[in-house]
């Protein structure tokens, strides 16, 4: 119980001050005049002023509060290197035993785990974890904090005032002095690049704990494929040029050879993601004659802002002589030599839409098209009655690359095209809208070119299993053959229409080698806190996949069927950094969090990073390896400013309590106040009357 005195003035404070000044002046005048009973008169005046201040006796019932000691345990990825995890666990157990003595003195011990998991922000943030762990504790109750860490902390406050309390903070460092490590540091990293052009990446190989100047072998990979093997000097800046080969993320890895005796090889590799941006795709569309389906192709290609379309329709073959005056013709000359000889390699895709030989293109130009495809180009032939005519493009050098030849006959009957078994797995036609029902929920076609000797992959067929859409690879290029000219019925909404946009767009992008439409592909995607590995294949099963974590650990996973031609598996992404998946043939990369986590940038343990800040709080820094029992002695300090020594650390024990009850007794209220005032007046009167 604590006794005290409190005031609750009966008049405003300025008035009370004025009354006190006036009373003091009168009392002083009385005392100076040396009249009889002057002191008692001054006392009576003082009692009157005191009555206006309304003093009260207080009685407090207080309950003592515990002193809080926080122990922050670093569980970040860098703690997994060497023997740090085992050292930290042993130090935590020993510290728990030594702090148990403080519990007997009313202390509360809080262990706070910090770091670890892919959900953590970049870097080790022990001070953030400390603030969160003490958020419900008033600053005056904090006796101090102890960090169990490797010393690589990335949220050190600029001033100790930012801690929010005044108490010592100590650090006990895991690891050993003199550790060696090699790492790759990126110095310049472009974010974007044009597909087909080179981008320059700047980097530097740095050795910690070892002298600079060593010659180091470096391996540069793009999406897992080795593209360069330069030799560089450690400590010196270097550059490498890498071609951007596809749209989307191109992940470039720069990996240095290991350093003898180094702590870990995980930071010997740095990665940068460069978004490939395609220059406009150039498509050449040649229509053999005006027809109702011609606009379907034109509208589809013109609707894509990334496509630069060059379209010609052959309206007037050279041999046609009908006497029409030249000034009444409104035709653009077909620049055959420029398109099919000089600039053919500038096009990403060539489309022949119901084109029949009319003597416009010499045979040598078809030879150029064959070479163009074999060297990586793309050709699409949309066939109709032209394909069975004597002028069919099949009766040109294109016969060596086209996947099927005409029989000279056509099937003229209503039918609904259906996906073949291969079409259900192929990314061009897999899950095509409407294909899930039987028969498919799209309109009928009424014509089909009969062929024989089909090769490649038939993804859609018609009556009696006759192919409607054939896909094939020729050399480095690709060829597609559409054997019906009625896809325009889907575009016009006949009988409900069909997925012409999905089919034709996918088909065009497959021909132009869009990575997402590859038949055999492995990809890995980060989804929230999980990683999904997906294998796209034309086969019946998917091989086992080996997963490599950012720290270099490996695991093997089995993919489960998810859809025809698709196999997947999902598992937690429990670590920041670059993950790799491979099935022996294909490789996929995905990054969780930053590409090059600060956690792996500098991994050697250190006592210097934390020392200035902790010593400013009165705390100390020790290495576990230098102490008996891994931790220093714990000392309860109740007074003084020194909290650390060579082998001991102090905690500022607090005397803090909370008021549970409060009693008030006003001195000048009621009869007691009246009696005090009367006593003062009576004493002064009695002395004066003598």
Automatic annotation (TrEMBL):
Keyword annotations from UniProtKB, A to Z: Membrane, Transmembrane, Transmembrane helix
UniProt entry tagged with the keyword Amino-acid biosynthesis: no
UniProt signal peptide: none
SUPFAM superfamilies to which the protein is assigned, alphabetical: Class I glutamine amidotransferase-like
Source superkingdom: Bacteria
Key word Transferase present: no
Transmembrane segments annotated in the record for this chain: 12-32, 39-57, 664-686
InterPro entries recorded: Class_I_gatase-like (IPR029062)
Protein known as: Glutamine amidotransferase domain-containing protein
Lineage per the UniProt record: Bacteria, Pseudomonadati, Pseudomonadota, Alphaproteobacteria, Hyphomicrobiales
